[in-house]
Amino acid sequence: MASPIRSSQTKHKIEGCRLAWMRTHPLKLSTMFRFCTKATAAVPPTDLPSFPKYMGAGCVFTDGKHILAGYQPHKAKPGINGIGGHKESGETYLQTAFRETVEELFHVEASVIPPKLIPTLIQKLVPTRVKLKNDYVLVHFTLDQLLVFLRLVKASGLTSPLFATMPLTLLDLLQKRRHDPKAEVAILCLLPVMKHPLAKKGKEFVTPYFVKDLWEL
Fold this sequence. Notes:
8 helices
């Protein structure tokens, strides 16, 4: 049986040789970063459902009590709606959902979105739920994942005409976003998540008195 003292001495010798080699063979920071990102990169799940014939998709950011939404003034029937839109040729529903979300939150065209941003979002953000409803795919995420989304968007170098500084928090996303009536989504908001009997029938359940109050602001 090997002596514990000799084993400890051998271990220290090995570590000393390793440190000496690293001093004489320095790695570039970019190389080290590449190794680290390869080792820790999130792998997109392979068990997500496939919907090849969908027509549109969007991201649903919710904590179960509130959901991110936006007022869309340019639709045939203007109103508050979810975040998302139509599929572009050749897209998967995750590509559509993230592209539309970036476009609508930041009022940018697809052509200015950094090429690596959408693949990075797909890789780093795993949906909590995916649901197909009338040819439209709802991709669910938590509000904590929205913060990750914001960090990845800012890290990509994307800029927005609606933000002096790209937001990193939910509060900044809502309050520091400039109001632009020309934007597809003019104003962002949080709505309560509730099981209202009128909602199930597709009817409005905001009281007319409050709607009138909003109009008179």
